[in-house]
Amino acid sequence: MSEKLQKVLARAGFGSRREIEEWIAKGRIKVNGQVAILGTRVTDTDKVVVDGKKLAGQKKLKEDRRVLLYNKPEDEICSRKDPEGRRTVFDKLPPIKHGRWVSVGRLDVNTSGLLLFTTDGELANKLMHPSSQIEREYAVRVFGEVTPDMVQRMHEGLIIDDNLCRFTDIQHFGGQGVNQWYHVVLMVGRNREVRKLWESQGVKVSRLKRVRFGPIFIPSTVSRGKFQELTKNEVDKLRQLANL
User: Fold this and answer.
1) What is the pTM of this model?
2) Could you tell me which of 176, 180, 172 has the C-alpha nearest to residue 141?
3) Helix 232-241 crosses helix 121-128 at what angle (to 10 degrees)?
4) CA-to-CA distance for 202 and 73, rounded, in angstroms?
5) Boundary-marking domain end, from 61, 80, 105
6) DSSP 3-state of 53
7) Which residue range forms the structural domain that includes residue 77?
8) How many domains are contained in the chain?
9) CA dist., res. 144 & res. 179, Å (int)
10) For 138-169, how does the pLDDT look when each residue is reduced to its tens digit (9 = 90+)?
């Protein structure tokens, strides 16, 4: 059964369908030695080459599906390349022969902790989509006095940048003086949402680390800047979570 070329490459993690359509228009993709055109359809037996790099067959891509857990340090950005020459989260990932690593969401440059990468673009897109309603848990150190009323407001939700933002859970984890640690859970990973919720209450986030994504916790054995491959059982849990 044939599929549209852009769908196959998006599933393999090369980019969004719109991005790949632009690549096709620019002649960056060949199928069976011929430059592809918009509307090209492929099967598992066709030879697809992107910028000179051969795409594995769809059956092999599914069999070789991989997911990495990376403990992101602060000061690394989530782009593949940075014009300013800063370190990126892709720099230390292991090379792969077919396809490429796709990050499941992003963490801003000042946020550390759990970041997932996969060779399965479809899985990444499903996990990132707001409709998946996947819990993300963060350890947060805040500077300033936190009152029960503030906690209640963040539980109930606040309109920030035209979106309803809220924590589904807030737990106090101790601290000294005006520096206190909390663990918070939210369902949608909007840009800087954790920081914005706390700052809306007049306190400052001085440290922020993601410690969990759905059923996957960051293990103590994975130090900053290191990665660990998920087991088949863990990958299956993520796929169930994404309704795949």
Assistant:
1) 0.80
2) 180
3) 50
4) 26
5) 61
6) strand
7) 67-131+216-241
8) 3
9) 7
10) 999 999 999 999 999 999 999 999 999 999 99
Residues 124 and 139 in one domain: no
Q: To which H or E segment does residue 151 belong?
A: helix 148-156
What is the per-residue burial (b if ≥16 Cβ within 10 Å, else e) of 123-154? Answer: bbbbbbeeeeebebbbbbbbbbebeeebbeeb
Strands 227-229 and 53-55, bridge-based pairing? unpaired
CB 101 within 8 A of CB 13: yes
Tell me the one-letter amino acid at 140.
V
Q: Which residues are catalytic?
A: 108
Measured distance CA(133)–CA(187) in Å, rounded: 5
Q: Give residue 2's identity as a one-letter amino acid code.
A: S
Return the residue matching tokens 């801003």: 108
How do residues 97-149 score in pLDDT, each as one tens digit? 767 898 999 999 999 999 999 988 888 888 988 888 899 999 999 999 999 99
* Amino acid found at 83: P
**CATH classification at residue 191:** 3.30.2350.10
